[in-house]
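Annotated sample (chain length 183).
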Amino acid sequence: MKLLRCFFCLPLPADLAAALEAWIERARVVVPGARWVSRANLHVTLRFCGEIPQPVAHRLSFGAEAALERELSEPPALRMGGWGTFGHPPKVLWGGLEGETHRLAHLNALLEDLCRSEGLEPERRRFSPHLTLARFPFPPEASKLPPWSFSGREWHAGTAIFMSSCLTPAGPRYTPLKIYGKN
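Output written by the structure step:
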């Protein structure tokens, strides 16, 4: 049986993704060796599903439709916050989110319930809305990063995507399986 590596996410507006891409390119020069996220792969993960059978992925994509369409009919207002790291020692660099993040937590809870109803393991980590910017094989020197000028940048998240992820040596390739809300 074919397995698909899937997740639900919110895409970024094009102008914010372009600005973050420019920041990442400057950061790449001063922090070599990190695996920086490409512009095309920047997103806010709502629920990672892991590798699941294709029929389960199909049921999840359609099972989420009514809830996501309803919740995104009035798009949550989000703002970029500061940045930070996950892990001890730090292994992931992230950009934080502010604004109506409680609505993202609600979306996560709806998707968590749907995933559990399909037999997926519960998410072990507490939901923390963020954008992953890079992964490090070693702790980065934060003082080398370019100035972070994204705090306060606002957008309305009216679209969600059920995404397939294929891991390759060059990094993950994402393919939308279903798009919800306003395009």
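Annotation: The chain has four helices and nine strands.
Annotation: The beta strands are 3-11, 35-36, 43-53, 77-86, 92-99, 130-135, 154-156, 159-166, 173-181.
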